[in-house]
Amino acid sequence: xxxxxxxxxxxxxxxxxxxxxxxxxxxxxxxxxxxxxxxxxxxxxxxxxxxxxxxxxxxxxxxxxxxxxxxxxxxxxxxxxxxxxxxxxxxxxxxxxxxxxxxxxxxxxxxxxxxxxxxxxxxxxxxxxxxxxxxxxxxxxxxxxxxxxxxxxxxxxxxxxxxxxxxxxxxxxxxxxxxxxxxxxxxxxxxxxxxxxxxxxxxxxxxxxxxxxxxxxxxxxxxxxxxxxxxxxxx
Length: 235
Hints:
Elements: H1 2-26, E1 42-44, E2 54-56, E3 59-62, E4 65-68, E5 72-74, E6 79-81, E7 91-99, E8 102-109, E9 117-124, E10 130-137, E11 143-150, E12 153-161, E13 171-177, E14 181-186, E15 189-195, E16 203-210, E17 225-234
Antiparallel strand pairs: 1-17, 2-7, 3-4, 5-6, 6-17, 7-16, 8-13, 8-17, 9-10, 9-16, 10-11, 11-12, 13-14, 14-15
Enzyme class: hydrolase
Protein name: Beta-glucanase
Keywords: Glycosidase, Hydrolase
């Protein structure tokens, strides 16, 4: 009799445990990172600007002004992108390598210059066809805009108010671009994800600070955007 009771209890426990596992899976509470097969990470801490990996945009019209090479200042362990509110000039760096799927993360402290943004994104021309964006507004009470462009239009977009001042400290911004899902994380916390395959062409990884035409410049730029570290790995 005791054996039958023990067997019944064991079966009930197994059934209950299986149900819990099923519920967890349905609610997506398991870490998906464990199932993603990435290549080893490439990490750049910018002790110098590696010209084999990175290029600086020389001169390119964007928004209210130009992206200029002179606005990008490599340092010992950081890259600074300076903004000029008088000329609306900004700057940009981008990888020479192209990516279709992968995991991309940057440690960034943004400039304090209301009316400008810092972008960490994947892009291939033409405009609005192949792009995955994290855009941070360069101001103390800030927000971030996550956007996916596909086939000439916005496919997905979400605005998120930041619970911190991005101009004061470094924070980690991450994109996971996968065949069946695109995820956006800040400081390791998943903020937004969209199911679906949005990537149809290899893209360059880019970081810039600039003045969009859809924002009004509200004053000088006393501090620069500073990039402390970038890591990326292909899927």
